[in-house]
Amino acid sequence: MDALFVPLASAIGASVDQIKLISCLLIACPLGSIFIRIPASQPNLKHLFNLLVSVFFFIPVLNLSWGFVQLLGSVLGTYYIAANVKGSNMPWIVFAFVMGHLTVNHVIRAFYNLSYETFEVTGPQMVLTMKLTTFAWNVWDGRTAPENLDKWQLQKRVTKYPTLLEFLGYSFYFPGVLVGPYLDYASYISLIDESLFEGKRSPSSTRSIPDGRKRVAYRKMLTGLVLSPSFYYAIVITPWFMTQGFLYRMVYFQLSGFIERSKYYAIWTLTEGASILTGLGFTGYGPSGESTWEGAANVKVLEIELPSNFKVLLDSWNINTNIWLRECIYKRVTPKGKKPGFRSSMLTFATSAFWHGIATGYYLTFFFGGFITTAGRLCRAPTTITKRIYDLTGTFVSILILNYVAAPFMLLNFTDSIEAWRRLHWYGFWMIGSTLAFFWLGGSTFLKALQKKEGKVAEKDMAEELKELQHRMKE
Question: Between the CA of residue 384 and those of 395, 396, 432, 449, 454, what are the distances in Å?
Answer without folding.
Answer: 18, 19, 20, 10, 8
